[in-house]
Amino acid sequence: MNHISKGGNAPVPTGAMDVNVIIGTGSADMSAYLLDAAGKVRGDGDMVFYNQPESPDGEVRLTVGTFTVDLARVAPAVQRIAFCAIPEFGTVADLKSID
Asked: Is this prediction's pTM over 0.70?
């Protein structure tokens, strides 16, 4: 398992993988955004979160605290996937990371 610090990047495998966002203290809503070459979502389906836990083609799915991503199924127009943690209370500074 690879651990990535806040703002970090890492190479990923080409198949399916799980992405876990671990919050040390506090609680946060998790979301993922499928971004095109301009860094924009193409529409509502490119946003995965608690109220829309799966992208239309099923390439990104959210279950309790874990995203399952099947990179082989991601459309060629999607250049990046951004994973976000949004605090339920307070500010981002109130969340503590585990390194």
From this structure: yes
At 3 the pLDDT is 72
Apex CA 94: angle with CA 55 and CA 4, to 5°? 55
The DSSP secondary structure of 31-95, one letter per residue, reads EEEEE-TTS--SSGGGEEBTTB-B-TTSSEEEETTEEEEEGGGS-TT--EEEEEEEESSS-GGG-
- Please check the confidence at residue 99 and state whether its pLDDT lies above 50: no
State the Rg of the chain over Cα. 14
Contact in structure between 61 and 48 (CB atoms under 8 Å): yes
pLDDT one-digit tens code per residue, 28-47:
788 999 999 999 999 999 99
Of 19, 6, 74, the C-alpha closest to 46 is 74
Q: Are 71 and 32 in contact (CB under 8 A)?
A: no
Distance CA 51, CA 42 (A): 18
